Amino acid sequence: MTNLRIKISLFLNYFVFAILLNSVGTVILQVQANFDVSKGSASVLEAFKDLSIAITSFLIASYVNKIGYKKTMLISLGLIAVMCLIIPSVSSFIMTKMLFAAAGIGFALIKVSVFATIGLVTKSKNEHLSFMNFLESFFMVGVLTGYFLFASMVDNNDPKSTTWFNTYYILGGLAVVAFLLLFTTKLDESSIKEAEQSKSASDDFVEMLKLIFLPLVLVFIFSAFFYVLIEQSIMSWLPTFNKDVLQLSTSLSIQMASILSASIALGRFLAGLILRKADWLIVLVVCLLAAGTLVLLAVPLTKNITGITVNSLADVPLVAFIFPLIGLFLAPIYPAINSVILSNLPAHRHGSMSGLIVVFSALGGSTGSIITGNIFEAYGGQTAFYFSLVPICILIVLLIVFKRLQPKTAAVVDIKVKGGH
After folding, report:
1. What DSSP assignment string belongs to 168-229?
2. Fewer CB within 10 Å of terminal CB in the chain, N or C?
3. Which of 365, 326, 378, 337 has its CA nearest to residue 220?
4. How many angstroms separate the Cα of 5 from the Cα of each of 8, 12, 67, 73?
5. Domain boundaries, position 287
6. pTM across the whole model
7. Is 190 exposed, middle or buried (0-12, 13-18, 19+ CB in 10 A)?
């Protein structure tokens, strides 16, 4: 029963941050009108989010074992609850940057703790892989929910209206509920504490850095970086693409972007079933090839869009429904490679490894969003989304190399870290 409460708590924690973090695409669209900022300037919101994730993960991840997973998650939920309840009263571009910086700090703490906790509540590699996919699919359910929440608050008739900031009151309330659920749930961290008794916090930090130099971990880091670069470059700019290229109204632009989140959620749910039996490399390479094909088929369909703003769902062009289906094919990649790397490390290394996952994922997301935003502004939305083909090709090569290195056992990796090799 305790394990079930912990799993529910992990799902809820992820749900809250899914809505918050992935509101960045909607916010990028809105601040351009609300505060008269350019696309290039708006793209820095992704950097405020992702760089704070990366810096926090790098500096704090190795100390999470000492602090405790539960305490770390409670600190994160408390921080974000306060920020969400404050910002509607002081809405501005600067405060929006601060909100995403706080969200980045909170998510870094949550993700490291959640990923590490999975190792405590699952009993096998297959169960770990399956739970990771289900958890990540629920994350996308949160993203999907967020699109509709924000779209319901947008005023299509007044581009300068900031009433959409009231959505953050709802997020603040959800964070409080998540805090109370976790606070009243017991998490057995004794196995981690026993492994940490003989080590100082500086030892943990050094061991996290040593992990980077293991070939298996190094290839994984690049794989995670390029995957998130692809995902965030599309997710953060899809609402703007819908509005500027497909000529949809603001609320429709946000709502149609939710198809991407829904397809990722469905894809990860299906992957949670398929990857129990199928070879993960074959599944992921096929998915990436399908994603690249979809880009080549869908983006050319945007060339004949008329200049009339679309306000009705019945008038939305077909490509607005087709392109977001790329999420089905991108969906399994991130949770699968995360599970592979974590299940090849002993449980007491999961906190440090989770920190590295969060750091390089954040750097990938920030890089992808900024590059896409600047290409979008200089060359248009079609060129910006064609750009995703480059990291897709790179990622296929990295996954093949990752698979070849993967058969290392947890014991071998642990010995190498301790030995400093």
Report:
1. HHHHHHHHHHHHHHHHTS----HHHHHHHTT--HHHHHHHHHHHHTSHHHHHHHHHHHHHHH
2. N
3. 337
4. 5, 10, 21, 15
5. 2-419
6. 0.71
7. exposed
> Taking the CA of residue 371 as centre, how many other CA atoms within 13 Å lie in the half-sphere pointing to its CB?
22
Residue with tokens 């992808």: 368
Question: pLDDT tens track of the chain, all 421 residues?
Answer: 567 888 888 889 989 998 998 788 788 888 888 888 887 788 788 788 888 888 887 777 667 777 888 899 999 999 999 999 999 998 888 999 999 999 999 988 888 888 778 878 777 767 777 787 778 778 878 888 888 888 888 887 887 888 889 999 999 999 999 999 999 988 877 766 655 555 565 666 777 777 888 888 899 999 999 999 998 888 888 888 888 888 888 888 888 888 988 898 888 888 878 887 788 899 999 999 999 999 999 888 888 776 677 777 878 888 889 999 999 999 889 888 888 888 777 766 776 787 788 788 878 887 888 888 888 888 888 888 888 899 999 999 999 999 888 754 444 455 344 444 3
**Are 251 and 154 contacting, i.e. CB atoms less than 8 angstroms apart?**
yes
C-beta separation of 61 from 142 below 8 A = no
CA 315 to CA 358: how far, in whole Å? Answer: 40
Structurally, the chain folds into a number of domains equal to 1
Contact yes or no for 93/49 (Cβ under 8 A):
no
